Amino acid sequence: MKKTTILLFLLFVSTASFSQGMLNLFGRANDFFDLMSQQKFAEADSLFDTNLRTKVPAAELQKLWTELNSRYGKFESAAAVQGKAQGEYFTVIVDAKFANDTQSFIMGFDKSEKVAGFFLRPRSTAAAYLNPAYADTTLYSSREIYVKTPGHNLVGLLTTPKNVANYPLVVLVHGSGPSDMDETVGPNKPFKDLAAGLAAKGIASIRYVKRTMIYSAEFGGAFTVKEETIDDALAAIALAGTLPGVDKKEIYLFGHSLGGMLAPKIATLAPSLKGLILAEAPARKFTDLLEEQNKYMYAMSKDTTQAGRKQLADVLKELDRTRITQAGTMKPDSSLLGLPVSYWVDLNNYNQVETARKINKRILIFQGENDFQVSQADFDSWNAALGKKSNVTMKSYPDLNHLLSSQLEKGSVAQYQQPASVSETLINDIVAWIKQK
Known about the structure:
Elements: H1 2-9, H2 22-37, H3 41-45, H4 50-55, H5 58-72, E1 75-86, E2 89-98, E3 102-109, E4 115-120, E5 140-149, E6 152-161, E7 167-173, H6 190-199, E8 204-208, H7 211-214, H8 225-240, E9 246-256, H9 258-268, E10 275-279, H10 286-301, H11 306-320, E11 335-336, E12 339-340, H12 341-348, H13 352-357, E13 362-368, H14 376-386, E14 392-397, H15 424-435
Parallel strand pairs: 7-8, 7-9, 9-10, 10-13, 13-14
Antiparallel strand pairs: 1-2, 2-3, 3-4, 5-6, 6-8, 11-12
């Protein structure tokens, strides 16, 4: 139950857990394939550790490469896409594109960044990403950009409409936990869908890899949402203001979940923003959400045993410890439910509803009624405080879940393993709101 609690809180925890230097390993993995494609097998072999070099000399690498090209067609490109720390070793997944097929490889690295293992990755039987019908690539294009802050360089994508001048732009800000630029959960990619849907209708976007995914080693001690989210969102907004083709007076922030909760604070630090979009944004304290989530999951389990009731009671008791507004005698980097005391204190002293109430920028707040992570209670709180303000638009969708897709019921986390696109109705509503004069 405690593990479930943290997974619900950190919705976008990826299977990829990055450590310091992972970017270097991505580079070395890509270098390996570059050398192989250039027939430089001895140089590629020099990237192996002593043990692997003995087992797989350069001549064997040449044979392997010949076989791969025979099986899949001529090699075209390769890209490291995922990394994971495993004890003293690190694994990197590389997707290689050949003329007739694609194949993923697993490369294991030791601490000295030498390749200690090299394997073909078994074909996955998991559901694949579903390309939405509204993602008409003839209407938009994407190019790589970088969101930079001191000591950090986050890769992202700028997606822009074709044959449109002076277009609005939306900066997409993630929910909790490590996340890639698409906000991938299982086969679902909400930010990729949003970028495509908006661009096809004349609105650009910036999305980028979240700092906690690439620089996870920095988050082992004391930190707050400033380091996790706010600094990079501000950098992305600043970057948007320098891009040709963007209407500098029409830059918006789209905050999903935690990103929506923090959007009002970000707006107070970014005067250039025209407006905010709060998507499935908590209006309550995170502890309240965690409590509600765990009670919901307990009810879904239909566990009526005394042991089950005790387990839930123990979790709720543990959750109460996170309601702190000052550290007191606790060290800022001491952990509560996997997050430092500094994080809880900072977040518990932040009132997102009151902050939003003081903002005069345009605000769109929407909620899916099939969302079991952020509920209608949050939407009602936003509505009670801001619903009558002339700069605020409120909308509730009966069918949407937390990933912004249409569903028949609230369900559970298992729902996130089924491919479903962000609702086109929602995208159309966002576009209409942005273009509204």
